[in-house]
Amino acid sequence: MDVILQQLANLSVLIYIVTTMLSMGLSFFPKQFIEPLKDKKLILKSLAANFILVPILTYIILQVIPLQTGLAIGLVLMATGAGSPFMLKLVQFMKADIAFAVGLMLILSTVTLFYMPLVLSILLPDVSVNHVSIAVSLLVLIFLPLISGTAIKWRYNNIAKKIKPIFNQISNISIFVVVLLYLGLNYKDFLAVFGTGALIAAVTFILTAFLIGYLLGGPSKNTKTVLGLGTAIRNSSAAFVVALANFSSEYDVMAMIIVIYMLSIILMMLISRIGAITGKASKDV
User: Fold this and answer.
1) CB–CB of 21/86 below 8 Å?
2) What's the structural domain count of the chain?
3) Residue 76 vs residues 21, 215, 219: alpha-carbon distances, Å
4) Segment 19-22 long-range contacts (CB within 8 Å, at least 24 positions apart)
5) Which of 4, 83, 114, 138 is such that its CA lies 20 to 30 A from the CA of 277?
6) CA atoms within 13 A on the CB side of 219
7) Which domain holds residue 102?
8) What is the pTM of this model?
9) For 3, how many CA atoms within 13 A lie in the half-sphere containing its CB?
10) CB neighbours of 17 closer than 8 A, spacing ≥ 6?
11) Tell me, what's the pLDDT at 259?
């Protein structure tokens, strides 16, 4: 029974990844990939925040807070994957720069495809990682659905508008099933996360990543907020892809990914709420 549930959990992860990337692609026209490249300075700072400073932050955290191997791998996988579509929902809620948010997410997702396989060998020197498998998995499960969705949006916009909510709903249901099944099957591993320094490491990672993005996103407060959210909320889809391909039997890897993913959403929603209240108060004054 456990084997069947485990296979169902893995299948749910795959469904979540593909439907999430399809939904993302169905939301944007091809020209939106190019639009954010106009502000080259801001893009370079965004890339530095996500692909240089966040991995350095992760290295420092792992030196200060020693974690079990599987938990450390989960943290590293989240650190090397950027461009989460969930960031857009928070940006819309805060009424920040949605155009920059869209472009940022697309750029970070694309760079992740090439960056992740290369950097994992540096951050995980003692772990055997199949780089070809990572590259192929990211290409098939993330890049192709994203491009396919964008192509449908460009060629059949009306159809894209109709089917996007369907894929979005499937994505939401799938991640719920993933969390439920992994919690049920591997509850001891999840409890172990809260019984170690992993929880402190995860919260430190998320909040510091937000601060890094916020400080580099200026001078506009809107872009500071967007880059802060985009840096703190990591690309769980990419992390899941690598975890399934290389660490499917190490449940604590998946546990750490899910914990960081859920905590990042909760913490960034709180920050977004505070930001929205503060912004409204300043306007009233």
Assistant:
1) no
2) 1
3) 22, 22, 30
4) 19/145, 19/167, 19/168, 19/170, 19/171, 19/174, 20/85, 20/167, 20/171, 20/237, 21/141, 21/142, 21/143, 21/145, 21/146, 21/149, 21/237, 22/145, 22/146, 22/148, 22/149, 22/167
5) 83
6) 0
7) 2-284
8) 0.78
9) 0
10) 141, 142, 145, 237, 240, 241
11) 86
How many residues are listed for the chain in this entry? Answer: 285
pLDDT digits over 163-204, tens only? 989 988 888 888 788 777 766 666 666 666 666 788 899 999
pLDDT in tens, 47-62: 999 999 999 999 999 9
- What are the structure tokens assigned to 219, written together? 């001078």
Quickly count: other Cβ atoms within 10 Å of residue 278's Cβ. Answer: 10
The single residue listed with the structure tokens 């409890």 is: 191
Report which secondary-structure segment, H or E, holds 134: helix 131-138
CA distances from 193 to 64, 112, 160, 224, 273 (A): 17, 26, 40, 31, 27
* d(C-alpha 26, C-alpha 148), whole Å: 8
Residue 136 is part of a domain; what is its CATH number?
1.20.1530.20
Q: Give the rounded distance of the alpha carbon of 13 from its chain centre.
A: 14
